[in-house]
């Protein structure tokens, strides 16, 4: 089983707005907190209770739709999100745009390519949006329409200074084994004019995805010197790619002097352990990462995935299978994990 070093989710969307309006605001807040903590069943229950009580219907339908989407119930997610749009009407264009992003994701999950394209087009009818162009391009490329996908990607990066867009396009091409096409967008990202210390971090990150680890190390080291905490995490990955686990471990330990995003550092330490065959130490670092107060859902998913790897490498296939089953239930859209679960079942 391959260790997972980087995140899974391509697009990041807006958080739920607080406040339930009339009725019982605690019910809505409970849904928000459950969603943020990864308790999607609990979130769905709370939001559906808000809907039953006719409380802040647009936000409640939106929350329920997101919870269903996270549970892998794309069909119900689509219904709730359409209801959210209906309740919202023409109010709050930013919230409407956000709901449409989730709706397109729910439609994509059901194979409704044309419906998802229409949702992205509705977002774009309100003005150019790099994220929408990128995601529509991804949808087109994965469905085999390479020419239109490229058109969308080119529109996404037009005058774009958001490095994430370039990296997401690269990863999309990587998913269809078209690395050379994706590399062109990374190279274009390097043309963004540097003017801040943050650009050292961004350029270093791009070089990391290009596989140019020497340049990545140079830029990220400068970013670390400039005080970038995020650069430390990626520099740790660079050291691992350069077979320098000691420097990677030192970087992650140094990062742990700050509690913010400590879960990501513990994941890095676990990866160092896995690379060195220290599986019990990896499991301990994973456990500490999962217990972090400020853990994000993406960080939790990375840690849980690597926990399966640790048990498998350790030879404890029974526990690995149990963990893989729990993971598959929590993250039903992770195809790599699903394949791993099937493999582990064959080992029993």
Written account of the structure:
There is one protein chain. The protein has 348 residues and is an all-alpha fold. Helix content is 73%, strand content 0%. The chain has 19 helices and no strands. Mean pLDDT is 87; it is low at 8-15 and 17-21.
Features:
348 residues, 73% helix, mainly alpha, globular
How is this fold's topology laid out?
Elements: H1 25-37, H2 40-52, H3 57-71, H4 74-88, H5 93-109, H6 113-124, H7 130-142, H8 146-157, H9 163-175, H10 179-189, H11 198-210, H12 213-225, H13 229-241, H14 245-255, H15 262-276, H16 279-290, H17 297-314, H18 317-330, H19 335-346
Helix pairs in contact: 1-2, 1-3, 2-3, 3-4, 3-5, 4-5, 5-6, 6-7, 7-8, 7-9, 9-10, 10-11, 11-12, 11-13, 12-13, 13-14, 13-15, 14-15, 15-16, 15-17, 16-17, 17-18, 18-19
Overall, the morphology is: globular
Secondary structure tally, helices: 19
What is the arithmetic mean of pLDDT? 87
Would you identify the regions where 5 or more consecutive residues have pLDDT less than 50? 8-15, 17-21
Order of helices and strands: HHHHHHHHHHHHHHHHHHH
* Residues in helix, %: over 70%
Count of distinct strands: 0
Q: CA-to-CA gap between the ends?
A: 16 Å
Strand content: under 5%
Main beta-sheet strand count, sense and barrel state: none
Could you tell me the radius of gyration in angstroms? 21 Å
């Amino acid at each position: 089983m391959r260790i997972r070093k980087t995140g899974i989710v391509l697009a990041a969307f807006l958080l739920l707005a607080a406040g339930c309006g009339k009725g019982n605001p605690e019910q809505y807040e409970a849904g928000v907190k459950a969603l943020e903590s990864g308790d999607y069943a609990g979130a769905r229950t709370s939001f559906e209770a808000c809907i039953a009580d006719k409380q802040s219907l647009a936000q409640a339908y939106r929350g329920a739709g997101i919870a269903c989407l996270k549970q892998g119930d794309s069909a119900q997610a689509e219904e709730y999100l359409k209801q959210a749009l209906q309740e919202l009407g023409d109010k709050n264009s930013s919230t409407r745009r956000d709901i449409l992003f989730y709706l397109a994701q729910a439609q994509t999950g059901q194979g409704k390519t044309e419906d998802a394209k229409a949702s992205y087009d509705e977002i774009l009818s309100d003005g150019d949006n790099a994220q929408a162009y990128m995601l529509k391009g991804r949808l087109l490329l994965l469905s085999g329409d390479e020419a239109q996908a490229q058109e969308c990607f080119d529109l996404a990066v037009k005058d774009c200074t958001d490095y994430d867009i370039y990296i997401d396009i690269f990863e999309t091409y990587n998913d269809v084994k078209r690395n050379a096409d994706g590399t062109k967008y990374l190279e274009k990202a390097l043309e963004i004019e540097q003017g801040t210390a943050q650009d050292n971090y961004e350029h270093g990150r791009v070089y990391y995805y290009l596989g140019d680890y020497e340049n990545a190390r140079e830029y990220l080291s400068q970013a670390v010197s400039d005080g970038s905490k995020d650069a430390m995490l990626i520099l740790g990955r660079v050291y691992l790619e350069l077979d320098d686990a000691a420097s990677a471990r030192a970087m992650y330990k140094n990062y742990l002097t700050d509690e913010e995003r400590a879960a990501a550092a513990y994941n890095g330490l676990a990866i160092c352990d896995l690379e060195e065959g220290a599986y019990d130490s990896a499991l301990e670092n994973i456990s500490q990462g999962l217990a972090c107060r400020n853990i994000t859902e993406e960080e939790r998913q990375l840690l849980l995935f690597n926990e399966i790897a640790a048990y498998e490498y350790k030879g404890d296939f029974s526990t690995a299978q149990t963990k893989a089953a729990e993971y598959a239930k929590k993250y039903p859209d992770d195809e790599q994990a699903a394949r791993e679960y099937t493999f582990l079942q064959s080992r029993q």
